[in-house]
Write a structure and sequence with these properties.
By secondary structure, the chain is an all-alpha fold. The chain folds into two domains: about 100 residues, Orthogonal Bundle (Cytochrome Bc1 Complex, Chain D, domain 2), CATH 1.10.760; about 90 residues, Cytochrome Bc1 Complex, Chain D, domain 2 (Orthogonal Bundle), CATH 1.10.760. The protein has eleven helices and two strands.
Length: about 260
């Protein structure tokens, strides 16, 4: 303090203090403006992605869902469905589809990953909704529990998808598709968006950790060998008995016809 007081009234003290203040102010300003510039670049990239998604939407989706995704004819409104719903429906090939009155089936996707991401970004920009996920984010191998997932699946999913996850028939000509061979991100997105006849399983109903356990059980069931031979949908003795009766009775009828023809 005495050292500062000694030179406080020096003739160069004020110019040096002014120069130091200006340098400090310039440095602070440069640091403060550096972060917004990176944010601005990210915002510009997202804006470009949204514009690209809008063009794809106008060409391939607006005829059913309306020019502003408000819904038109049999196509429902997409406002508020979120990026997760778009990623699930489009990346699995369910959308776009020619006949909206039929249940959407999983097939080869029409759009590639970049186009799907652009479509999802555009729909997400219309209103808040569940975000899309990547397979890398879904840490089911690390955080999931197979035993817990099996119990959760039997309690919440088996009544539609059957206890082995092979799918099953529903009312009014609808059906629950098989969950075998589905990507983890699409299973997770289906649970949080509830596509078609499927209910929405919110985080209060099934927690994120429990969702990962369900995915882990599904992936475990995919790798189970069929020790008894042909799996026949893994639905138990119904299909097995039907197959035996059909083949057995058919064989007996064929033998009876052959013996009758031979006796003549």
């Amino acid at each position: 303090m005495k050292f500062i007081s000694k030179y406080r009234k020096h003739r160069f003290a004020r110019p040096l203090l002014l120069l130091f203040s200006l340098c400090a102010l310039g440095f602070t300003f440069s640091v403060a403006t550096a972060a917004p510039s990176s944010n601005s670049m990210a915002a510009d990239a997202r804006s470009t992605l949204i514009e690209e998604g809008q063009q794809i939407f106008l060409k391939g989706c607006s005829s059913c869902h309306g020019l502003n995704a408000e819904g038109a004819g049999v196509g429902p409104s997409l406002i508020g469905v979120g990026a997760a719903s778009v990623d699930f429906q489009v990346a699995t090939g369910r959308m776009p589809m020619q006949d909206m009155s039929q249940q959407a089936m999983r097939k080869a996707p029409v759009y590639d990953e970049e186009e799907v991401a652009a479509l999802a970004a555009y729909v997400a920009s219309l209103a808040p909704g569940p975000r899309a996920y990547t397979n890398e984010e879904i840490k089911w191998e690390r955080d999931g529990n197979t035993a817990e997932g099996g119990e959760l699946f039997r309690n919440n999913c088996a009544m539609c998808h059957n206890f082995a996850g092979q799918g099953g028939a529903l009312t009014q000509g609808k059906y629950a598709p098989t969950v075998m061979g589905v990507e983890p991100r699409h299973i997770y997105e289906a649970m949080i968006t509830g596509p078609q006849a499927m209910p929405v399983f919110s985080d209060k109903t099934i927690t994120p950790a429990e969702k990962l356990s369900i995915i882990k059980w599904i992936k475990s069931a995919e790798s189970e060998p069929s020790l008894g031979g042909a799996p026949l949908g893994r639905v138990g003795p119904v299909t097995e008995g039907l197959l035996v009766w059909t083949l057995g009775l058919g064989l007996l009828i064929g033998i009876a016809v052959w013996l009758t023809a031979k006796s003549r």
